[in-house]
Design brief:
The chain is elongated, with a radius of gyration of 23 Å. Helices cover 17% and strands 34% of the residues. Strands 1, 2, 4, 7 and 9 form a five-stranded antiparallel β-sheet that branches. Strands 3-8-5-6 form a four-stranded antiparallel β-sheet, with no helix packed on it. A hairpin with a 4-residue loop joins strand 5 and strand 6. By secondary structure, the chain is α+β, with helices and mostly antiparallel strands. The longest helix has 21 residues.
Length: 176
């Protein structure tokens, strides 16, 4: 059986008879472009100095959430906020747990953006000397982006009151 050949004009007439198909193809291409951006992008790290840390503190008493606090580094006098880096639509792609104040304890962390604290990350982790993971752990984040100009907050709880956790964030901007 021979497949009949059609001309470009016949094909265009056929496609134009189904305008939704063209729109769907354009949306599919936009979605593919977005997925590619998530796979291939130039990441930044916060804090952007190896001399700086982000220290998160759990609430008190034990297993109590801390108050929401803006994520910032430990720069003396005027800490740098992560929110100051949200100059374009921003996506946090990873969180590195660098150190914990208490071994053999479970921690839980939430990160959110905006005044309404729109949560985009919840993570539970533990650290220990024996039969548990070391403090250094990397977590990939696949969450929605942070809109331009929004503040970024955290809250944390732990089995130990006022436990601390040192982290760094990997992030990238989305083109406007």
């Amino acid at each position: 059986m021979v497949t009949p050949r059609i001309t470009r004009e016949q094909w265009n007439q056929h496609i134009l008879g189904f305008p939704g198909l063209v729109t769907d193809a354009e949306q599919l291409q936009a979605d593919l472009d977005q997925l590619r951006l998530e796979m291939e992008h130039d990441s930044e790290v916060f804090p952007d100095s190896t001399a700086r840390i982000i220290e998160l503190t759990a609430g008190t008493p034990a297993d109590t959430w801390s108050n929401w606090a803006e994520i910032e580094d430990d720069t003396p006098v005027t800490p740098v906020t992560f929110s100051s880096k949200v100059t374009e639509e921003t996506h946090i792609t990873g969180l590195l747990i660098e150190d914990l104040s208490d071994s053999d304890k479970r921690y839980e962390l939430e990160i959110a953006w905006g005044d309404d604290k729109t949560r985009f990350l919840v993570h539970r982790f533990l650290s220990g000397e024996v039969k548990k993971l070391p403090a250094i752990q990397f977590m990939r984040i696949r969450a929605e982006s942070i809109p331009v100009g929004e503040r970024v907050y955290y809250r944390m709880r732990c089995q130990e009151p006022l436990a601390t956790c040192e982290v760094s964030l990997r992030y990238h901007h989305h083109p406007l």
